[in-house]
Amino acid sequence: MRKDDLCITVPTFFRCPISLDVMKSPVSLCTGVTYDRASIQRWLDGGNNTCPATMQILQNKDFIPNRTLQRLIEIWSDSVRRRACVESSAELAAPTRDEISDAIDRVKIEKEDRDDREVLSKIVRFGRESDDNRGFLAGKDDFVRLLVDLIDQVGFETTSAAKSLVVQEAVKILSLVRTKISDRRRFSNLILTNGRDRLTVIVFLFRTGNVELKIDCAGLLEFIAVDAESKLLIAERDGLVTELMRSISKDSDSSLIESSLSCLIAISSPKRVKLNLIREKLIGDVTKLLSDPTASSVSVTEKCLKLLEILASTKEGRSEICGGDGECLKTVVKKLMKVSTAATEHAVTVLWSVSYLFKEDKALEAVTSANGVTKILLLLQSNCSPAVRRMLTDLLKVFKVNSRSCLSAYDTKTTHIMPF
Fold first, then answer.
1. What is the pTM assigned to this prediction?
2. What is residue 116's predicted lDDT score, i.e. its pLDDT?
3. Partners of 241 in the beta sheet?
4. At a CB cut-off of 8 Å and minimum separation 6, what does 381 contact?
5. CA 186, CA 200: separation in Å to the nearest integer?
6. Average per-residue pLDDT for the chain
């Protein structure tokens, strides 16, 4: 494959046998053949019951994530991106720390008298090069405060294009170095509580910026959500929740979906925020995302289930989760197994909250119809954490199931149907 002037050779086993594209979420069937999740899901949804590569009839249609292959593909993809980046920007010499220090000093001295975008763009490139570089930037005297001051602009929506670009570069750098900032609460206060509306600027950039800028803004908003007060300030800023929900649609960029979900998780703990998210129909949007095999990567699935876990702590959230034909709960049951340990824990907590803790009748019906009891029994046999095991045991009490006798019966049944 050729990308501009960069020739890329794709290993054959990285390609999906159906689409022939590099696999994004490789999963294996019971035949041992690995496919991209979206492609094989479409094959099965079309009424097929065979393995496309071998044409064997499938004994079951379960997917087993191929973690090893996925990791290999990620390593290969990263190396391709790095190579493309190096070749496309070979003419740009990497700035040294001394050059960056001089650039920062110039911005400090002349920030009101010149267009700093070029200097800030150089600092962005420097920060993206390594974790050490980001630590160096965060440790420079008053540099973080300087960047925050650059965001402080009255009437930002009507400011000049040059000034707007400077603010965008400042936000990018802050997003880059945020995890290296030692005093997170002080940084949050700089943006939120100094009487100048820097939060409005960041929210405006999230609503109007490109994908890369939206991701930076979402990361920054997540980082400054340090307590109930800051979370309320962020969540109740006009237009933010609506834009975050728009950004988790299945057609959005995958990295933007993840960063938007992380931001929603960070701001959602106050009850007032939870109720607003429920009124905005976030549970329905999360259910759609979980149900879409092309959009729900492992990380996205974990974050969606975490959001449902948070919202299930309210009566209104539980009612919404159990509402309609129980589609949300059925989707949660599907994610109980074969995703990740974190996904299993969040899914079990959601089921435990609606079925055991608050005993919603609709929840019992939905879980039962989705074969949830069998999966709960299987999970009890797995190496789950003590907390998850306790919740699973509680769930069996609600369904009035004797785990030992049912497991024995399940094992006997399994023995009879196994081909060997």
1. 0.75
2. 72
3. none
4. 407
5. 19
6. 85
The neighbouring-strand residues paired with 57 are: 50
DSSP summary character for residue 356: I
Q: What is the pLDDT of residue 91?
A: 46
CB 154 within 8 A of CB 195: no
Q: How far apart are the first and last CA of the chain?
A: 43
Contact 206, 240 (CB under 8 A): yes
- The confidence score (pLDDT) of residue 280 equals 95
The pLDDT value recorded for residue 195 is: 57
Residue 291 and residue 304 in contact, taking contact as beta carbons nearer than 8 Å: no
d(CA 154, CA 274): 31
- Could you identify the residue written with the tokens 């949660």? 332
Residue 2 pairs in a beta bridge with 7
Q: Which residues pair with 27 in a beta bridge?
A: 35, 65
Which stretches of 111-247 are DSSP H helices? Answer: 117-129, 131-139, 143-151, 161-177, 184-192, 198-208, 211-224, 228-235, 240-246
Beta strands in 50-102 (DSSP E): 64-65
pLDDT of 316-361, one tens digit each? 999 999 988 889 999 999 999 988 999 999 999 999 999 998 888 8
| Contact by Cβ (8 Å): 264, 277 | yes
Measured from the Cβ of residue 307, the count of other Cβ atoms closer than 10 Å reads 26
Q: Give me the residue label for tokens 């920060």.
A: 127
Residue 98, pLDDT > 70, answer: yes
The pLDDT assigned to 97 comes to: 87
Strand ordering across the sheet containing 34-36: 34-36, 26-28, 64-65
Provide the CA 127 distance to its chain's centre, in angstroms.
23
Q: Which two tokens stand for residue 106?
A: 């110039």
What pLDDT does residue 420 have?
24
CB atoms within 10 A of CB 361: 9
321: tokens are 């989760």
Query: From the centroid of its chain, how far is CA 107?
Result: 35
Q: Up-side HSE of residue 171: CA atoms within 13 Å toward CB?
A: 31
Q: Give the pLDDT of residue 115.
A: 55
User: What residues contact residue 114 under an 8 Å CB cut-off, 6+ apart?
Assistant: none
